[in-house]
Amino acid sequence: MSLDKKRQTYLLGWLKQHAKRHKTNLRASILTGFILTVLIIIQAGLLAIILQRIIIEQQHFVDILPFFGALIAILLARAGLIYLREKINFTIGKKVRQQIRQQVIDQLELHGPAYLNQSTIGAWSTLLIEQVDKLHDFFARYLPQMRLASMAPLLICIAIFPFNWAAATILLCTAPLIPIFMILVGMGAADINRRHFKALAYLSGHFLDRLKGLNTIRLFNQGEKQTNEIARASEDFRIKTMQVLKVAFLSSAVLEFFTSISIAIVAVYFGFSYLGEFNFGTYNGTVTLFAGFFALILAPEYFQPLRDLGTYYHAKAEAIAAADNIETFLSKKLPQEQTNANTANIKLTEPLKTIEANNLIVLSSEQQPIVGPLSFSLQAPFKLALIGTSGEGKTSLIQVLLGFLPYQGSLKINGIEFTQLDINDWQQHVSWIGQNPYLLNSSIRDNILLGKQNATEKELDEVITKTQLTDVIAKLPQGIETQVGEDAVRLSVGQAQRIALARAMLKPCQLLILDEPTASLDKQTVQNLDKQHIAPNSITITHQTDDMQDFTQIWQLANGKLHCDIKENLC
């Protein structure tokens, strides 16, 4: 679906709102551009004076030596200012990209794993890296140039006008042709870039998923089929890329054509004036060599800001296309905001006492029912086992308690409706270990200390002992400082799960939620871990129903209904 004009205007305003936070840098960029224009005018004047005195007045080189000195000084000053302006512009783009990327990361964290699993890792990485980077040229190039393009040509016209009003008028009349044709050529560029980003996101996600499942693809002899699918996705991406490049080259060609025509008209005017065919444009009836050279030297510089703006117009289209996806994601309501309740941001000041639900219906991010209605009541302290076959909604129920999915009905913590709680404060009272716990590409120590950054060595040693990591760490080459690698490649799945358990145990919490945390551990290790008092209250999703004596309650979720305590046949 194409972006309508209203949406494009809104996105342009959204981008400019981020630029307003860097007004000082923008003004510095515009000021340096203005000074550069003044220096260009002075440089053209010096060149024209030198040529006038050498050719017409036949002066000696020594007499015009001061003008050469001034010219060299101007050139050096221009080089310094160009460097300074580029540095300022890059800083603007860098700061805005950092801010927007941080907003995306924060939003991803708030939405949680339930929302992230709805798309591929490749698609999220494209949003977070490529699409945010596509905003850079808009802030670093287009926006400062747009301000300068309205000032620099006018300043050059004012400089030429006292010497030859005809040349100034020609430049003034031909200048509007460039932005007009730039707009005509650029129509639809945002849509083309948007389709390009979608093709890139699909290709990235598709390729990464197939790469991760390479062994499965080989086992089921699906290599040729998947190769053909990647080839089709690559071809689609190639076509979309060529469409973007076609618009970019077409806009550049149009700009160069009209710029060349305009400069040629000025050159023809002066040529015929020197031949005596034209007798207008001057105030004293004579077209001097100085005026001709001055105007012709400045003519390309007159159009240069407009040409640069035309080149960066493509950056604007790219930024609008990228901003469409980024703004849509950032404006998406959080799970707690999707629930029909007024958030009061109440903090939990007392220990966890009760968790109560009445006709609770778990919803997806698209507001579709997943499981429910469910009603239950938990009184602290409790050690609950939640069992059931795959796909019944056990993990979704847990995601609601973590604040990552919206719901209908009632869910209360210590008698306070869940949507009234300060979600960040509530999550500080909860530790969670998912089915596939993630470890940073860092040391074992750093991964465990994520649970509590200021933990003492004694606390660290205690959780290492409780999770039976002592022998594992002792066998590693660098002990606790051993790097786990990307996706914990240097560890077995069981070792990675123990590190995740140690991290959860280190964090002081009121409620520990475990989603199949010991699936890759042996039975003896699981039994030893179950005897540890990690938290006063815990909820464990498990499929291992042969050893349930350590749980105070066992609930079963089946066919959308919750059997509240199958040990005592209570509901």
List keywords for this structure.
571 residues, alpha/beta, 6-stranded mixed beta sheet, 4-stranded antiparallel beta sheet, 21 helices, 10 strands
Number of DSSP strands? Answer: 10
Strand order of the largest sheet: 6-7-8-3-9-10
What is the number of helical segments per DSSP (H or I, 4+ residues)? 21
Which value, in Å, is the CA radius of gyration?
A: 34 Å
Topology of helices and strands:
Layout lengths: L4 H15 L3 H34 L8 H47 L1 H4 L4 H13 L2 H14 L2 H9 L4 H10 L2 H10 L2 H24 L1 H6 L3 H52 L14 H42 L4 H4 L15 E10 L5 E11 L3 E5 L6 H9 L4 E7 L2 E2 L5 H6 L1 E4 L10 H6 L7 H10 L3 H6 L17 H14 L4 E5 L7 H8 L7 E4 L11 E6 L2 E3 L8
What does this structure look like?
It is a single chain. 60% of the residues lie in helices and 10% in strands. The protein is an alpha/beta fold. A hairpin with a 5-residue loop joins strand 1 (354-363) and strand 2. The chain is elongated and about 110 Å long. 35% of the residues are buried.
